Amino acid sequence: MPIGVPKVDVPYDDEGKIPIRYHYHRKKKRRVEALDKNKEKEKEKDENLDDKTHTENPNNNTDSDTDVNYNTDSDTDVNDYEPSSQEPYKARVDDVDPDDSPYEAAKKRKKKQEEEETNWYDLLEVLYCEGLIFIGQEITKKLANSVVGLMVYLDQEDQHDRHPTMFINSPGGFALGGLAIYDTLDLVRGKAVQTIAIGIAASIASVVLIGGGLRVAMHNATVMIRQPRMKVFRDEASEIVLESRILLDLRNSITEIYVRKTGKTHMCITRDLEVEKFMTAKDAENYGIIDGVAAKKTDDTMFDLIFS
């Protein structure tokens, strides 16, 4: 035996080393002993818990109503009913059968509460479902995409045989977005969208207004037409030249739209677009941008014409 090795009954090999097989059996024995100890502790714990339960409830009355626990998914607990109330159970919970179990009674009570809850809806979503479209801000790419998608959806899914109505109160905005809305108005000619100007319809918003099937302006509405404008010069010269060409094409397209819709000459429209031309509702009607002006007083004939 090598020097310094404790005197333990361990089989050594010829070189004085402990074989690997012995290490394996020792570790396995320790694991088994640890598992046995854990099982004994759990068994003692369960026995102590049973003794404590019998001490607190010596009669072992498990059928008591206070120990009944119905495992339900309902958020309403049957214990929510006030036991101190002297009213009969049927009077406190309507539409409850006296033969119902507490679980069934709680389920009916929760269903009644859900029916009584008020459902809130977004106003614009409700109006969109009725075919009423609102452009109440500057026309942007995001707004143009939303309006175009909504018009196409209403044209495909409208089952009430009614014409969508678009209310416009916009200072203008992104010219290409406005032209996208105008082209979509021509696309859904099967059920022409009626356009109504409220407040102001300026710049590219007036192009959207003029593209409707029936074009109406409120008495105090204002319409303004002008040529498209370029953004502030911050780009390189080559980009400015390219943008100027695009801007010229936009101006020609918008001019052709006004000429076709109003019946004015090309020279007249070109001259009027040089400056910002503001028009009242009556002036816009005379100019040919709208078909009529809504009266100040509620006129059943006018509204039947608009919303029919």
Please give a quick description of this structure.
Pfam families: CLP_protease (PF00574). With 308 residues, the protein is an alpha/beta fold.
Descriptive report:
The chain has helices at residues 20-56, 89-92, 102-116, 123-129, 141-157, 175-187, 204-210, 237-262, 266-273, 281-287, 300-307, and strands at 132-135, 165-170, 194-202, 215-217, 222-225, 277-280, 292-293. Helices cover 48% and strands 10% of the residues. The protein is α/β, with parallel strands linked by helices and 308 residues long. The chain folds into three domains: 1-49; 81-119, no CATH class; 123-307, 2-enoyl-CoA Hydratase, Chain A, domain 1. Strands 1, 2, 3, 4, 5, 6 and 7 form a seven-stranded mixed sheet that branches. It has eleven helices and seven strands. The protein is elongated. Residues 62-76 and 83-93 have low confidence and may be disordered. The termini are far apart. InterPro entries: ClpP, ClpP/crotonase-like_dom_sf, ClpP/TepA. Belongs to the peptidase S14 family. The chain crosses the membrane at residues 196-217. Residues 32-55 have a biased composition (Basic and acidic residues).
- Count of helical regions: 11
Give unreliable regions as ranges.
Answer: 62-76, 83-93
By secondary-structure content and strand pairing, the structural class works out as: alpha/beta
Predict the CATH topology of the largest domain.
2-enoyl-CoA Hydratase, Chain A, domain 1
Strand content: 5-15%
Level-1 CATH class name of the largest domain = Alpha Beta
Number of domain modules: 3
CATH superfamily of the largest domain: 2-enoyl-CoA Hydratase, Chain A, domain 1
Instruction: List how many beta strands DSSP finds.
Output: 7
> Biggest sheet, open or closed, and with what strands and sense?
7 strands, mixed
Keywords: Hydrolase, Membrane, Plastid, Protease, Serine protease, Transmembrane, Transmembrane helix
Protein name: ATP-dependent Clp protease proteolytic subunit
Family: Belongs to the peptidase S14 family.
InterPro entries: ClpP, ClpP/crotonase-like_dom_sf, ClpP/TepA
